[in-house]
Amino acid sequence: MNAVALLRLAARLLCAAVLATAWPAVAAPPPTQLITQALSVASNAERFPEGDPSAITVSLPDDWSDSQPRHDGGVWYRVNFNPGPSLDRTDLLALYVPRACSNLDVFLNGRRIHSGGRMADPVARNCHYPQLVSLPGGLVLSQGNVLDLHVRGHALQRVAARERAGGLSELRVGAYDELAALHADTLFWNVTAVQIASLALGMLGIVMTALAWVNRRDAPMGYYGLMAIGWALVSARLWWREVPLDNATVEFLICLSFTPILALAVQFLLSYAGVRSRMIEAALLAQCVVLPMSLLLAGPGRLFGMTGAWYVVLAAETLGAMLLHLHISWRDQRSEFWPMAITLAAAAIALAVEMAVQRGWLALPPAPRMQILLPLILIAFGVRLVVRRASAAAAPDASRFNMDARVREITAEIERNHAQLAELRIEQVTEKERKRIAADLHDDLGAKLLTIVHTSESERISTLAREALEEMRLSVRGLTGRPVRLSDALADWRAETVMRLGQANVEIDWKSLAEDTDQVLPARGFVQTTRILREAVSNIIKHSGASHVKVRCAISGLQFGLNIQDNGKGIPMELDGKLDRGHGMSSMKHRAKQMQGQCLVESGPGYGTVIRLTLPLGPEAPAAPAR
Amino acid sequence: MSNILLLEDLPEIRAWLKVLVHQVFPQAQISEAARVHDALELVSAVKFDLALVDLGLPDGSGVDVVAALREQQPEAQSVVVTIHDDDEHLFPALQAGAFGYVLKEQARELIAEQLNRMSQGEPPLSPSIARRVIAYFAAQARPQAKDTIPHVQLTDRENEVLLRVAKGFTLPEIGVQLNLSRHTIADYVKQIYRKLNVSSRAEAALEAQRLGLFGRSR
């Protein structure tokens, strides 16, 4: 079934229904005569009972529940008409009866000219069918035509709905063409539109039930489909004329059908909101039994009263289910709330209007609007339900696509984390290994060097071993060390230099940086500088003969400068003009170069020595420890 | 000095140290140990005035011996004799109650002088150790560490001395700067070491209690 085509049809019908509501009275063309009074006699006679004393004049439309309470059977009406000046006798004339419930025969000037169907029980059910009776030209007199209408109907008490209670509407006599148009219009709205709507609803119901059958988990769809089918079937009461059952049975069956439909509606509302209650299900089932039993007990004569009472009960149940559903969907599924609320509000209004009509608070509408509007609402919502299910069925594809993307994302993240972890682990392992090497160096090499320091007979070997030990310790520190704050490094250098020079009785003038700095030296830079400084101090103590040393530090930009100046005798030149290698100048320069720095030595006999050390600072310094 | 404990695992170094200690303290009775276990037994049996303790030993760390001495013989002075000059190794020993440290590879005369000074109450203090002490007491003073009982604080003068040492000034230089005698500066340093030990012990006790509570609650 093409849902879109259905939707279009439904929309068109809805539009037409609204238009028909807005302009209900399609004005009859002027030449037609409106007949609103008739002589009425309650009688089942074959012919109009002439001279019956009970004959009274009634105004049309005549509602039996007002004029003949509890009357069940036939009523004769007699009206007179003259074709009049506007009506040419040669024109084809017609009688139009918008409503005669349940059936009628028409006599013109004593001759039967029309029968709506069976007049004996089971009487043809013509309540929703407008009747168009052509008035044969040969029978129409120029003056004083008598129209007798025999209406068979049922007392209000014996039907379930007011529109099926006996009665006759106003009559029109006029040109056939004009009245035929009126008739066709009313017939369309009263019957054809209802049939189309029921058909569409029924087919939709079948589709939905089939879908629910395929997908067993989709209970709401199943409930809705069955409810739609049920509603479509019950709509047959509006257009099925020749039912081979007597009125009491038919009305009873109609009433019977409403409890399952209501049960399905309630079940749909609850299951759609995700609620399932065994108690409610049991109550609904019980109701399907209790209602017919109560009707049977009351008997066919009190049908209308009983259905009126039941109508209130069923409407209350429906309203309760609607409110529960809306409450839950407001809480859990806000996106579903508004479409559902609008649908349910429309349905509730339709139910309320229907109740008002049945109670007699509102006049019978010219067309059974609820019988068109409600199916249209149901169709619209049903289509929406199907479309939603269809898109939900398509959703797994989309969600699988999303899932794939998500899986890829997560995989990438895991791989990243893994790589980071591996890096971290390598770092940890490296760190552990460095510590192990450091410990081994201390315990093994350190202990041996220490033994040499303290057991060697030769002072020179002791000194060498001590220096080797210091070198080893520095190497280990460079190996394991973290970057050192420059101010801390300066403090360490100062303390050591001052102590050593102090022991050698050399005066020292050390000026560190004016302010503390957060600059850091890489561990290797710290170690190398320590070595350079230590070498310089050793030179001063051993060779220079200086009595005074001046140390100055400075930071300019990303450069750190350290100047060591003594007043000693300077470093003697070698023959090639270079400074004496024995003073370790080349190793100092080499270490500085390793740090991307510079070590300049200025010296001359008689005016001491100046060592200018320049190092790059900062984390981007290439001297960052190679670890 | 009448009783001196000498804990050192390398025989040559132990022998050499013994000779040195004899020179510095000719009257002393020297008890030798090569393992932590032996040293702990000696500590529980003999009363010592001075203990020279190596840190890296085959069966553990000399820090345990320092702690045991501090616990059982508070009057005894522990001096760490080690090849490690970094505060990573020295600081725990100082926290445990060591009164100073001597680097093993130093010249005999230097070590002798340092031992002499320490025995006269003049412990050494390097800039890096001073920085560690400052950081330690700064952490103690933080609000979340308030529950450390007893709460030990350094005096302003002690802080002043520490800050200056941390900046690279020697103890005699600081004495000149603050117009204080060498003896007074030494007292400050001793006080700093004592407070470091007291605070560390309190902290350790608290930590043990906390761990104990956790252990019980499990």
Can you summarize this structure?
The complex is a heterodimer of chains A (627) and B (218). Chain A has 627 residues and is an alpha+beta fold.
- Summing up helix and strand content along with how strands pair, one would put the structural category of chain B as alpha/beta
User: What summary fits the major beta sheet of chain B?
Assistant: 5 strands, parallel
Helix content of chain B: 55-70%
Question: Whole-number average pLDDT of chain B?
Answer: 84
- Record the strand order, biggest sheet of chain B: 2-1-3-6-7
Shape label of chain B? globular
**Poorly predicted regions of chain B:** none
Global Rg of chain B: 18 Å
Strand arrangement within the widest β-sheet of chain A reads 3-2-5-11-8-9
| Subunit arrangement of the protein | heterodimer
- Range of strand content of chain A: 15-25%
Number of strands of chain B: 7
Structural class of chain A: alpha+beta
Q: What is the gyration radius of chain A calculated from CA atoms?
A: 55 Å
Low-confidence stretches of chain A: 21-30, 620-627
